[in-house]
Every structure is written in C-alpha cells, then in structure tokens.
Specification:
Largest sheet: 6 strands, parallel
Helix content: 25-40%
Shape: globular
Number of strands: 14
Strand content: 15-25%
CATH architecture of the largest domain: Alpha-Beta Barrel
CATH class of the largest domain: Alpha Beta
Order of helices and strands: HEEEEEHHHHEHEHEHEHEHEHEHEE
Number of domains: 2
CATH superfamily of the largest domain: Enolase-like C-terminal domain
Structural class: alpha/beta
Length: 371
Amino acid sequence: MIGDLKSEPILNRSIKDLSDKIFLQNITIETSQPYLPTPLQTASGTLLRAPLLLITVTTKCGLKGQSYLFSPSTTLLPSLSHAISAVFEVIKGQPCFPETITDTILSNFKLFGGTGILTMAMAAVDIACWDIIGIASKQPIYKLLGATNTQVNTYQSSGLGIGNLASILTQADTFLSEGNFIMKLRLGYNTLNDDIFTLEQLKKHLGDRGEIMVDFNQSLSFLDSKTRCSAIDDHGLLWIEEPVHAQALEQSAYLTKSLKTPIQIGENLWSLTEMERALSLQSSKYLMPDVGKIGGVTQWLRAAALAHKFGIKVSTHLYPEISCHLLAAIPNAHYLEYADWTSSQFSGHKSPLNNQLFMSDDFGFALNAAS
C-alpha cells in the first residue's frame, strides 16, 4: 500500500504547529497556454504551447498559495480542473499541513488507484499548500526543507527537438553562449541512421565544449530499443531517457543491465508504489519523478527518499520554479531539468547560467504569476 511507503515526517513540529493555525478556505483555477519560446518536436508529438492550469489556494486568514500544472493534452484541461476542485473539497476547512493533506486525499480516493489525473489534482493542491507554509513561515521552500544549498546543477531541455539539423546546432550554440554545456537531445527519428546522424553531428559540433543526454520519449518497441540503444552506447552519453514505454519496467531493466550508458526514467511513474517497483526491478540507473504527476511536493520528496535508500540519484522533470527547491533539499540530487516553457508566465521564473540555477530567497516558491 502507498501508506506503507511513507518516509519519516518531512516538516518539524514547529511548522506543524504553525500550519495547525492556518485553515484552507477556497481555491481558484485559471487556464493559460503560453507559447513556447522554442517549439519542441519529440517522438511523441509537437508542442507549440504549454497548456497550464494556474491554481491559487486561499486560507481563512487571507494567505494565498500558488501552484500550476502542465497538461500534455489541452483537451484534458477541463477534466483536470474539475478533478482539482473535487480533491480540494475533501480537505477544505482543514489545517494547511501538506503531509496530512496528501494522506487524506489518498485515503479518500484510494479506489481510484492513486495515479493519473487524481495525483495531478493532488499535486495542484499540495504545491499550493507548501507555498502557503513557506509564506507563513517567511522562508523559501528550500530553507523550509532544511537545505543549505543555494544552487542546483542543471541541464538545458528547452530545445534540440526532432527536426532540422541547422536549428539544432543553432540552439546548442545559444545554450553554450549562456554557459549551459549540458543539454538534452530528442531522438526517435524514422530510422536509426537518422538518429545516429543527428547525434554525431551535434557531438561533432560541440566537440569538447558540451555533454549530451538523449530522450526517446517512449517511442521505441523493445526490439527497436535494443538495436538503437546499442548503436549509441559508445557515444559517451550522460543517459538514455525513456527508450521504451514508461510502464514496461522489465524491458527498461533489461536495457539497464545490458548497456554501459545509464538508463533514465521516472517522469511517468505516478505513485510511490510504481517508484518502488522500478527500484526493485533495477529498471534504471537514475530516476526523475515529475512533481506534477507523482502527487506534488510531499510525494516527490517521499519518492526521492525511497530512491536514496536504493542508492539512486534523482533528477527533476519540468516545473523548474518548484523543482529547484526540492532538488536542493535531497542528498541524492542529480540534475534539474530546465525548460523555458513557463518563462513568460511567472515573474519568479529564473534561468540557469553555467549549468547552475541559483535559489531565490523570496518566501514560498515565489511563482508570482504574471497577469
């Protein structure tokens, strides 16, 4: 059961006492679809805009916490919005203590399995509650979590999509000009030769100035994954991400055992149960849970703690404004995935320089949603 996988309490008693005096009253949900600064083509489709839900939770004492969710599907935004409202009704009027709120929601909706739209809805509420506690305690979230790190290691994930080679090389040069020499290339072209050509041309262009990880976005069959991953295994990659379907953990485990290059998965693991299964099967060398999909800050931190017990390094997936605080607070931190998709949405959005993102000391997550 999910409850059996909970780690030790995240917040200390003084914060619990503070949260017990703050009661949840209302939630508002808005839709926004900012254009991506750089449209992204992956093996799973084309992304021109970022479909977002912007969430504000208000307490009886007037404090407001913000969160947001990214939906890969615009058509599901209304359903996701309704789910958030339904989840909030379960904990409306209760004290703003994120760990208790998360466990209450999971208990009330256990027949839904604790995955999918439910955990995204839970994440929307949980993240906003953490924001409230940060504001109430007058601390940024990373300090609230006891972190002393004021910066996190990053890689660039804002471009290098499937497409025109000249555009890929130009984007790589832009990253380099900002000192961001670690970058993710999307693969999954129609043929293996196209994958190898694009990868080798980028490596040739970068020379010793850059490092690359690649992402197949779950596009390969098991048979094709063995062929393609083996073909790029000697290319000095930092990792190969999601070569097969995210739920095919046994197949991923096979690739992990048979390749020199580390396998990276985790953004489509929706619960602690799925995370534990991936860890037990040794499905990957690294893990990168998504704070919006796994259920929010509370579940993300529990997942990271679970990975730490297995000796696995953890990276983040999207949500850089939120994820940087979480990565700064864990002992098994790897990389922050930086994507600029929300740079025009939030005034608190920060960009990395030299593959480092420096933390803000503004209270909470300091999203400061742009009007």
